[in-house]
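Continuing the series of single-chain predictions for the mutant panel. This is the parent chain; the variants come on the following pages.
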Amino acid sequence: MKIISKRKDTLAVLSQCRNAQCALFAPNGELAGEIEGLLIGGQKFAQDHDIDALPIAIGMTGIYADNPQFRKMSTSCVTHPDLSGFQGGDVRQGCEIWLRLLKVYEDLGDSFGRVRILPFIDHGWSTDPQDQAMLMDESVVERMAIIMYDASTLEYDQNIAATAKYVEKFGDRVVIEAAADKIYDPKDIQKLKLTREDQLSRPQEVVRFVQRTGVDLIVPNLGTEHRSVGAGAADRRYERSLAQAIRDAVGPIMALHGSSCLRGMVGDTPGDGITKVNFYTAMAVGAGQRIYRTMQQLDDEVIAKNNLWANSESFSHDLRRRHVAKVCYDMLDTLGYRKLAGVQS
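Parent structure:
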């Protein structure tokens, strides 16, 4: 396994995916179980389809409210067993642990020799002190392939100003992704009486955002699970015509966040200008449920017999990584990775 973090190499991977008409698979991967599962699935797919260098972008969030991954995995964080919340946690420490963990797998020789990993920060909040400190840390930036500098809690022009400033500082070293819209708090949505359509991206505003910030990748609101705040599950649908309009205006530089509502149709999105597809919830939930059901089936072994194998961390770890490996393999196929065999450098 090789880690790709230089800007020119990341841009080359994105170009390779565009040329092959596939989207870069960009799952989040927290700890060893998920990371190993992605590597196992990627290596098998590369071997099965004769791909010499198969790229997977693996990301993590910092303080992101839905799932603050770096904070949760830091050693001082305590998650409440009743799922009511957590306390403590250090985003920068969690980031350091994660980056060093990725390095472990790079140093395993040829175990995953066909896989190329592009580390990225997902939703680095510009307005959070811990996230901001991480985003401005040059030792972090130099080890990332892509950074999503997320200033979308700000008003549109403030978002542009903050993002442009970040691009000016680090745009020559790392590929920068950003959201061109304001994310409204649920209370604001109710107060302003915003509809789902009110929150969708407007192509002309995306154009202005890209021109004034100089970002490499843009995350629009296309009506999917990502940022469809206040919309019910029935209203979460991919707006293909909107994606195509944005593609025609700024080129194929979109990253799709929230793809579950597309089901098996996510593989059709590269033609709409989607060049990177983020993914996590379905994979994590599926793995957790598999572990739960397996432990239920082994209830007597776990409780009455105190079976050491069943109670060991390595057992649940292997269940998770095998599930993730299969999901990874299937997603690579769905996103068109077979076509990479014909465009290898």
